[in-house]
Structure formats: structure tokens, C-alpha cells
């Protein structure tokens, strides 16, 4: 099927765009493809088809000067506002600097992101202060989760980042974190959605 619109029919591009516009979380290309095969009765549509359509839509958005684009987040696709729209969305939704993570939370989250899985004792050894309250807050915000238990005396809990962490900070996977010699600006994602701009208070 042609990806371009034909009279009286829904195009693949229209369908992909419609699905992404109504989802507030990243959707895997294979899942979108499954839906499109059923709706458009075209068995040739697969995940690669969807990825190709997303790339073409992004080129169209760029040419048209649109304020959004399709991003690959946590191995899924999501329609998100462009970086220059952050201030507009924050103002509209009434968010202020207090919605960002505190310095202590940023430091703790950075340690977990780069060293995961990591124990609380290891985090506190690096930061030099207790981090129990900060850890609980990060878990409440679904940025950090318990990733298991360490194979050492007492079997302390191990902490790692979550899928929500990837989504909020615009990462396809944890390997996309900047190099250690380029400290990440966690808490100031390059891409934000309207929903993300409304979430949470300062930790």
C-alpha cells in the first residue's frame, strides 16, 4: 500500500500519526504495525514500515516548521514537543523551577543511572550523605526501582532506573546516556511532552 493518502482510504502515515497523537507513552513499532495490518488489511506492514513512515513524517514536520516530532524512546515511538517548546509548555501548565529535581536528587539519580545496579551504601559512599529520603522520592516519581539484591552480606537491595526514566529524559535506552566526561543535564530533557511538563514537584 502506498504510504501517501489515496482518495477514500486512510494512509499508513495518517494511521501512524493518529495512533501516536493519542498515546501518552512510547508505542513499539511492531504494536502499531499489528494494528495497521488489521485496519488497512495489508499484511505487508511491519515494524520497519512503521519506522520508515515515522522518519518520513519527521522530515515533513521539519519542512513544515512544526513544533513536534516523533522520537524513539525506550524502544518505542512517541510524538513529542521540540526542545524550544519547553518554556511554552511549562508556562501553560503552570510549572516552575520547583518541578525540577533537586540537586540532591539529580546527584543520586546520576549515580544510579551510570552505576546501576547499585546499593544504597554505594550511593551514600559516593555522595557522602544519607540518601534514604531521596531514594524514596525518586521511587515515588517512578524514576528509580529496586533491581534486585546484591550477592553480599545482608543481601542489600540494588537500585536501577526505570522505563519512565528513559521516557522522561528522552533516551531510547540506558546506553544513550552521555559519556561520563560530559555530565548529563538530567532533569532538563531534550524533548518533553505536555504530560511530562506537568508531572511532579521538586524532590
Task: Kindly describe this structure.
With 203 residues, the protein is of the alpha+beta class. It has two domains: 12-81, Winged helix-like DNA-binding domain superfamily/Winged helix DNA-binding domain (Arc Repressor Mutant, subunit A, Orthogonal Bundle); 95-198, Winged helix-like DNA-binding domain superfamily/Winged helix DNA-binding domain (Arc Repressor Mutant, subunit A, Orthogonal Bundle), CATH 1.10.10. Helices cover 41% and strands 12% of the residues. The chain is built from eight helices and five strands; from the N terminus they run H-H-H-E-E-H-H-E-H-H-E-E-H. The protein has helices at residues 12-21, 29-40, 47-64, 86-92, 103-115, 120-127, 132-140, 163-168; strands at 68-73, 76-81, 118-119, 144-149, 157-161. The strands form two sheets. Strands 3-5-4 form a three-stranded antiparallel beta sheet. The protein is elongated.
Structure in a nutshell:
The protein folds into 2 domains: 12-81, Winged helix-like DNA-binding domain superfamily/Winged helix DNA-binding domain (Arc Repressor Mutant, subunit A); 95-198, Winged helix-like DNA-binding domain superfamily/Winged helix DNA-binding domain (Arc Repressor Mutant, subunit A, Orthogonal Bundle).
Amino acid at each position: 500500500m502506498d504510504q501517501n493518502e489515496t482518495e477514500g482510504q486512510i494512509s499508513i502515515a495518517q494511521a501512524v500519526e493518529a495512533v501516536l497523537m493519542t498515546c501518552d507513552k512510547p508505542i513499539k513499532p511492531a504494536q502499531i504495525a499489528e494494528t495497521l495490518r488489521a485496519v488497512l488489511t495489508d499484511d505487508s506492514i511491519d515494524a520497519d514500515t512503521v519506522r520508515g513512515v515515522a522518519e518520513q513524517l519527521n522530515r515533513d514536520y521539519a519542512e513544515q516548521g512544526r513544533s513536534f516530532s516523533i522520537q524513539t524512546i525506550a524502544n518505542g515511538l512517541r510524538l513529542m514537543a521540540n526542545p524550544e517548546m519547553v518554556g511554552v509548555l511549562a508556562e501553560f501548565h503552570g510549572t516552575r523551577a520547583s518541578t525540577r529535581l533537586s540537586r540532591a536528587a539529580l546527584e543520586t539519580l546520576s549515580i544510579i543511572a551510570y552505576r546501576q545496579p547499585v546499593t544504597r551504601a554505594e550511593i551514600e559512599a559516593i555522595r557522602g550523605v544519607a540518601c534514604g529520603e531521596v531514594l524514596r522520592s525518586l521511587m515515588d516519581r517512578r524514576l528509580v526501582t529496586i533491581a534486585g539484591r546484591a550477592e553480599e552480606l545482608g543481601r542489600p537491595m540494588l537500585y536501577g532506573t526505570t522505563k519512565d526514566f528513559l521516557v522522561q529524559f528522552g533516551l531510547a535506552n540506558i546506553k544513550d546516556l552521555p559519556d561520563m566526561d560530559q555530565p548529563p543535564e538530567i532533569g532538563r530533557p531534550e524533548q518533553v511532552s505536555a504530560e511530562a511538563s506537568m508531572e511532579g514537584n521538586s524532590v
